[in-house]
Amino acid sequence: MEEKTVANGVIRLFLDSVESILGTNGVKALLNYTKMTYLWENKPDYSFEKNYTDGEYGALIRNLYQILGTGGAKAVFRQLGKAIAERTITLGIFDPVKELPPVERLKGAVDIYILASGRGTISIEGDLLTFDNAPCATCHGITSTEPVCTIINGFLDSLAAWSGFQGVRSREVLCKAMGDATCRYLMRLPG
Prior knowledge:
Mean pLDDT: 93
Distance between the termini: 48 Å
Low-confidence stretches: none
Structural class: alpha+beta
Oligomer: single chain
Helix content: 40-55%
Number of strands: 6
Strand content: 15-25%
Largest sheet: 4 strands, antiparallel
Radius of gyration: 16 Å
Strand order of the largest sheet: 3-4-6-5
Order of helices and strands: EHHEHHHEEHEE
Number of domains: 1
């Protein structure tokens, strides 16, 4: 039996964001295609309690890629990441760090994500932010010749904007879907 490592809130925020981008019928179609309609019928709460597996979360991602195709899915996933960040900000999850200076605010927000998800590490050296996510669930079960975890790009980009870094975009330079040992994201922060 696969270990439950994905928090309720991660699944709920993903579903909320799919619904905000693709509409109610879009999220229902995804859940029907994935044979996970139970997630609509009994939506998870926003807690950090881990009641889902990487396989379940990965199935949602993988099947959305299958439905939309890789190119379309990558664009939608960046938007989903932004929607997840915006919803998380609205819920007040990052309020403990909102008064910090921009670099500390961004690092603090990513640290809260790491604490909640149990995934990833962040470092900031000079103007370069590096986020490594070796236990990535986003590309779980996906094989690709290019990075596919654009949902994290959108999430990081929105956190950067919230922290005061407008127009900054992250890029995924390593991806487990390509056979790398980690999914790695880089972001240059203006000085």
